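so my prof wants the structure for this chain in the tokens format not the other one, which i didnt know existed until like an hour ago. anyway here's the sequence
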Amino acid sequence: MAKKKGFMTPERKKKLRTLLRKKAAEELKKEQERKAEERLRVIAERCGQKADFETASTDDLKKVCQQYFDKWYALEGEMFFLQREVILRDLQINELTISVSDMKGKFIKPSLKKVSKYENKFAKLQEKAAKFAFANSLR
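here's what i got, hopefully its the right format
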């Protein structure tokens, strides 16, 4: 009986790997193109179409600047209110957590910083040494 070769020979494996790499590279390239198009679309949606500044007159430039300023002003106001809302929500969350911990009877103990007993003694010794050095320098 003749020995049967396996289906996946090294040649076939190599060819399959190269095909998979090519396919993955194509998909990656398509994904990058799609993201770039999406980015340009979002920029155009948020900022409007790019204005032609080279051929525009002074009045046109003033209008464009005014439009950008108005848009910025509106967005800044909206951002202020959103930040205020976030702060209020944080305060509400904090109050609710405190009330829940009060109801449960569990209080969060703050983590205390370990202080070495020797640090205070060392600081006092340094002060005395400084005074002694100062007294010796006066003599």
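also thought this was worth mentioning. The chain has a mean pLDDT of 85.
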